């Protein structure tokens, strides 16, 4: 069996036996991959309705039909217990030789992992467990590989991500993480829908990679002979829609950035972006506090949650910290937008900072990431960024060196980025041209000039505020996970070798 080359000898033997059972089923005229089964009840609702019921009530409940995967099997000779897992929970099965006749030997011959459908009566065992006594059953699907008994160690962590389907089967905690993810997205949609936002979809492939400071993935459209980029942000198309008259829009979509992999970064991730006309970034701070408060209550039942040993309090109002105020605290000296680079770099170097080179904007971003971000545990809005690092944000009226922008940090992670949108097409073109000069200085993440977006602004963009929230990091926070790979069903991994594949 060449398909099993590379597996452990013991695993090979178990797989060989399962293939033998597969052939035996076919020889007996039984389809080992089954068909439709009329399910009348699911395990979770059965437990909710009948766990506390008395014996007489169970007898009066009538027959039930359940279906799922066999996850345990205990053979007692003339009787057999099994546990069946469906999409809601597990429920115990009890099969007896005198009740099933010839079908009993086939039931005993099941493997853990097989799918079956069962019809029978509810009763309670001597230990008090709600159980279905099997009156009839059908074979619905053969499992040809044994399920692991447990996963442990670094190697198996990698295997869990690579074989997520098995991880979901054997680890209830993993299933709960992704239920949390779904509930979070549902709650976000309900929150925004209730406030008049319209959900939309915008293109994934762009002719210009814009809307964020990031390196894109490149692709090519053969029919048009056109080079394209997978989108690095949702922003510019959503703001085009505001120009077109949709005053409140949002999108939850996949984003692709050609950058490193870490506990907080995956090249493919999910982003929420929303835009509100006639608002500014201050309005979005209040909206964000309300959104996270509702999520905390919906997902954890409290405004105070635990995350990786820290206590996070979502009670508003949250702390506001200016960008240069944070740098001033960290470096022990006044830092402003006009501080000479050499003086700033000297102060940072004396505290162990090593500059990678590049533009002034790159230096500021590196300094803030090195000195300030690791200190931001409680929800904090970092505000008033320098204009050089915010090419799409509106300048502050009282200080044109800064912009009306915030980034939200919680538990040392950036969760959101928002600003009052720049809607002056002349200034936007000047900013794009400045970004082109940054690219010439080596900043590969600097934005390109998007002529169509400038043209859209020329038709008129009302005063607008917009925000992006990383869904994956948000789920990390509320599921109490330290790695982004724990909250993405199929994170990007290096291809496995034939030896890994087993």
Describe the structure in your own words.
The structure is a single chain. By secondary structure, the protein is α+β, with helices and mostly antiparallel strands. It contains 17 helices and 19 strands. The strands form 4 sheets. Strands 6, 10, 11, 14, 15, 16, 17, 18 and 19 form a 9-stranded mixed β-sheet that branches. A 5-stranded mixed barrel has the order 1-2-3-5-4. The protein has a 3-stranded antiparallel β-sheet with strand order 7-9-8, with no helix packed on it. Strand 1 and strand 2 form a beta hairpin. Helix 8 packs across helix 10, helix 11 crosses helix 13 and helix 14 runs antiparallel to helix 15. The longest helix has 23 residues. The N terminus is likely disordered.
* Fraction of residues in β-strands: 25-35%
Give the distance, in angstroms, between the N- and C-terminal Cα atoms: 12 Å
Number of helices: 17
What structural class is derived from the secondary structure elements? alpha+beta
Q: Globular, elongated, flat, extended or rod-shaped: what is the shape? A: elongated
Q: What helical percentage do the residues reach?
A: 25-40%
> Residue-averaged pLDDT, rounded?
92
From the alpha carbons, calculate the radius of gyration and give it in angstroms.
Answer: 29 Å
Low-confidence stretches: 1-6
